[in-house]
Predict the structure of 3-hydroxyisobutyryl-CoA hydrolase.
Amino acid sequence: MASQSQVLVEEKSSVRILTLNRPKQLNALCFNMISRLLQLFLAYEEDPSVKLVILKGQGRAFCAGGDVPPVVNNIVQGKWRLGADFFRDQYTLNYVMATYSKPQVSILNGIVMGAGAGVSIHGRFRIATENTVFAMPETALGLFPDVGASYFLSRLPGFFGEYVGLTGARLDGAEMLACGLATHFVLSSSLDALEADLCKVGSSDPSFVSTILDAYTHHPYLKQKSAYYRLDVIDRCFSRRTVEEIISALEREATQEPDDWILTTIRALKKSSPSSLKISLRSIREGRLQGVGQCLIREYRMVCHVMKGDLSKDLVEVLSAFPVVLSS
């Protein structure tokens, strides 16, 4: 079965190591992979011999997102409900991970975007490295940060989640650790040794896993131009009530103190789908007051409206402009 070659399974004592294995597609999650992961996670939860699940990616990505082009093809053919099935199973997997009774360690040694965040950030332990690149780029694609992002972005310090979710800004491993998206930072050269030590865990008590991770963790310095140093500006601007007010506030900041980072941020917002920005801002704001299950249910309703074209046609228009991507 394709799903078995796309999600590799290693059994090591009481640990299960799952490897996303579509390296040429940067491990983008297709329907078969999501179904397989859901099946495995549910089985492991019921299996008393399994104490820990490790999730990682083959190649230079952990997971660069969901395999959305087939969904867009379904929409174009008037079969949006088939796309709805893809998102329903994906969000169910996200919920299972968010409420999992056993520790999940996600090794984010590479690209982590969109759906890749959904299958990692909800787990208890998220390991960033010097190779990690994180982003939620959905607003540029006519969508919105989903996979429970309205839950985890809204819980970042200040209004950093609004900044990350609306601009699609890329974060490195040090920034992920600083804002709480990652729980640990480990050098990639130490990952094999870390994995070997984790495989010796004979308990599902997270404190045992935590002790091992703490022995390997580093405390990296943020790069000099990190957006995380701009939290004061981010909080001043991204706390505004509407997208228009956020952009106006950033433009005022730019006139007072010319700054490449602010100009780049303004450009990113102006290049994104206007309707996606508005939907995303409201979603993150509502997520602050909701549990993860409520967020995922609401996001499912939202994505169905997007696929039906009730809100805008941007998703189909943007992805249809890339015929090579659509052929995957």
